[in-house]
Amino acid sequence: MALTGNFNRILQIHPSRRCNLHCLHCYSASGPEERDQLSVPLLLKAITNASEQGYTIASFSGGEPLVYKPLPELLKQAHQCQMRTTVTSNGILLDERHLEQLCGAVDLLAISLDGMPASHNRIRSSEQAFEKMAARLEGVRQSGIPFGFIFTLTKRNFRELDWVANFALEQGAELLQIHPLAEVGYASQNLIGSRPSTNILSYAYLKTVHLREAIGDKLFIQIDLVHQDLLRSNPDSFCADEALINQQNYCFADLVSPLIIEADGTVVPMQHGFDRNYALGNLNQASLSELATHWRQERYPSFRELCRRVYQQLTAPADLPIIDWYETLMRQAKIGYDHASTTTVSMT
């Protein structure tokens, strides 16, 4: 089982920070003016290495992945490595040409949807973002590519969950993923204080339960939150024992999922922007397999200790038992090293 609480073995790739929008909440600080981009040979090798390390899903994001012209080559490589593929897009560029490129190459197309039209347009910094995205959905349906929506949950749009679920149903989506806003990237500048409170997270979790009961198998609804009971009943899924490495069928994906490749080549666990003290390194300096081997020896113990510390904190009795595991781990990673640095300075 994965150390980091994800039962899928996911490699998340950000080939570029270029995007046709300039969204207020973008965790990777992407936009039309950005030029960070990874080379095709580097990413092809990384995908091969990742499959050898046990990763079974290659997820492409960005930036807008459709502006990265070699994307079809990466998707093909992932399939040749027996990995399932997903592409996350704002939907605006899903014209006939792009859909032809994706057809047969992508197993799930995830389209951003951040609430009702006004909410979506506001967070996307475009008065036409919703209209342009919605206009592409008929073509997506006609292509036969399985698709779903990703909803970024904030303090302002949490009451729109019913509308979002109904819209996803009406459009024929297979999946609705609800992901709480992370105050990183542009969100740390543009949306300070917009991250959902514990009360709102609990509301969203319960709303998801009710929506699942009402909708049934017509739409799979996923929320990136966890109940304390799941944490307590599956400790190995969040804090795997060191003995895991000695098992015969061990692979790196058992330790870290998701694993993220950022657009500058940095490889980090868990989430884009994770504290660099826990990074594997950079693909421009070594292969993914080499980085993974070094990380197991040098940084895995401190990362394991971070996971255990956060696990103990989050399994303590609480009035509201709904938890954002990934956000808490990311925040504590930074706090822990900041505290360590402060302590070192004060003792000098």
Describe, in plain words, how this protein is organized in 3D.
The structure is a single chain. This protein has a single domain, classed as Aldolase class I (TIM Barrel, Alpha-Beta Barrel). The protein has 14 helices and 12 strands. The longest helix is centred in the C-terminal third of the chain and has 23 residues. The N and C termini lie far apart (about 40 Å).
Concise overview:
The protein has 348 residues and is α/β, with parallel strands linked by helices. Helices cover 41% and strands 14% of the residues.
Please name the fourth-level CATH homologous superfamily: Aldolase class I
- Strands of the widest sheet, in order across it, are 7-6-5-4-3-2-1-9-10-11
Number of domains: 1
Structural class: alpha/beta
Strand content: 5-15%
Q: What is the 3D shape? A: globular
- The span between the termini is 42 Å
**Largest sheet report:** 10 strands, mixed
* Overall CATH class: Alpha Beta
CATH architecture: Alpha-Beta Barrel
Separate helix tally: 14
Radius of gyration: 20 Å
Stretches where pLDDT falls below 50 for ≥5 residues? 1-5, 338-348
Average pLDDT, rounded to a whole number, is 91
Helical content (DSSP H or I, runs of 4+): 40-55%
**What's the CATH topology label?**
TIM Barrel
Number of strands: 12
User: What is the N-to-C succession of helices and strands?
Assistant: EHEHEHEHHHEHEHHEEHHEEEHHEH
Outline the secondary-structure elements.
Blueprint: E1 10-13, H1 40-52, E2 57-60, H2 71-80, E3 84-89, H3 96-102, E4 108-112, H4 117-124, H5 129-135, H6 137-143, E5 147-153, H7 161-171, E6 175-180, H8 187-190, H9 198-215, E7 220-223, E8 226-227, H10 228-233, H11 235-238, E9 259-261, E10 266-269, E11 281-282, H12 288-298, H13 300-314, E12 322-323, H14 325-347
